[in-house]
Structure formats: structure tokens, C-alpha cells
Amino acid sequence: MSAAALYVRGLAKTFGGLRAVDDVSFTVPHGSLTALIGPNGAGKTTLFNLITNFYRPDAGDVRFYGESLAGVAPGRIAERGLVRTFQSARIFPGMTTLENALVGAHLQVRAGPLAQMLWLAAARREERALFARAEALLELVGLAAQRDSAATDLPMGAQKLLEVVRALMARPRLLLLDEPAAGLNDSETADLAALLRAIRANGVTVVLVEHNMSLVMGVADQVVVLDAGTVLASGTPAQMQSDRRVIEAYIGQDAEVN
């Protein structure tokens, strides 16, 4: 377990008699990319909400690099380096693309209020570094040309990429991405795949919920398949593509695998 970035054991959650997540267990190795797949209603987003304590689990344990997250507020979890995105892009109106990206760096600001108010050298250096990082990430996802445009004017797919950039500005140790490819065209999906590989290459562990099976099979190290709130199967992408249970429950229904 010492090599695990995320350790999930026996998570369960019931809503009004409906067992949304039922005894879910899996381990995410450090530096890996894990995909959670399954039909709509399988419990994937609920699982993210349990991991990050947006929901309190009825049972089970979540450990982040060996430390229990029981009772830890979502904001504190983000401060520890476990950062998530949401299915619907959360864009701040009235702000540019670059400004939206910079919002994600608030956990990384080290210059104190006095240094910022007096615009001391430390505050100036920090701001330059944050701007440079934001611009580099926007370049990586193909949004550099829109840096000064209103973020709300971006197409939905571009807004999803911007949300990933904002999450990366927090310098996460582990990144939870909830359907990052939803609404993306083929070119944007290719940009996302390149970004995911770059994130992993830089030592950031990734867990993503995703329905785009071509993306999953192209970038994931391991796949965890959920069905009706339980873990149906887990293994490598190749193993999941040939698992009859997975094909019958999910892949064979409506997903395309190249």
C-alpha cells in the first residue's frame, strides 16, 4: 500500500434505499493513469464525490498516499494535493481564459497579503511564474490564442480543457477528472490525450471517469469497470477489451473501441 497514491476499500453509499456505491475497492499506483468506466448510473461520479468527501460514505476507507481522508473537508483535501474537476465545466463569468486558469493557483500562492499589497519583489516573481505556467498550459491544450478572450465565449469542449488547465494550476499530486472528453471534437480529444500523457510523464497520478473508449484505451494504465455501483472487473485496457462481462455490460452496448 505504500506505493499507492490512492487506496479505496469497501466504499458504500445509499440514497433513499438505492445503493449507489456498493463495497467498491481499488488501488491507484503512484504515477499511473486509471480510468473508471461503466454505464450511466454505475456510480462513477458518486465515487468521486465520496473520495473527495463531497459525500460522506456510509462505510469504507479512502487513503491518499497512506493518510486517511475520513472527516477531511474537501478544501483541505485539495490542499493536500488531491484535486478534481466536474462533469460540467465551471467557468467564472466576466473573466478571461487566462484569468480563469490563474484561479486554480490560489492554493499555490506563497506571498503574503502585505507583500502583495506593497507589490514586493517576492510577489512580483511569484506572479510572473504563475502567469508563465498558465500560458504554457494553455499552449499545451491549444487555447493560447484565446488567453485574453472571455472564457464564457469558448465552445463547451474548450471550456472543459480550460477546467483541466485550472486544476493543473493547483499542482496536484493526484488529479480526478470527471468526463474530461465530453463535448470535445476529435482534435480537442487528441489535445486532451497529449495533455494526459504529459501529466503522467511529470509524475502526477490521474484517475478519470470517461465514456470515450478510444481515449481510455489509448492512455490508461489500468481500467476499473463499475456496474450498478459495484466493481465488475479491473485490469489493463487489453484485458478489459477481451473480458466478456465488460463487453456485455458496457463496451458492447454503445462504446467505440479503436
UniProtKB/TrEMBL annotation:
Gene3D superfamilies: P-loop containing nucleotide triphosphate hydrolases. One of its GO terms (molecular function) is ATP binding. Keywords: ATP-binding, Hydrolase, Nucleotide-binding, Transport. The keyword Transport applies. The keyword Transport applies. One of its GO terms (cellular component) is plasma membrane. One of its GO terms (biological process) is L-isoleucine import across plasma membrane. Pfam families: ABC_tran, BCA_ABC_TP_C. InterPro entries: AAA+_ATPase (IPR003593), ABC_AA/LPS_Transport (IPR051120), ABC_transporter-like_ATP-bd (IPR003439), BCA_ABC_TP_C (IPR032823), P-loop_NTPase (IPR027417). Residues 6-253 form the ABC transporter domain. This is Lipopolysaccharide export system ATP-binding protein LptB. It comes from mine drainage metagenome.
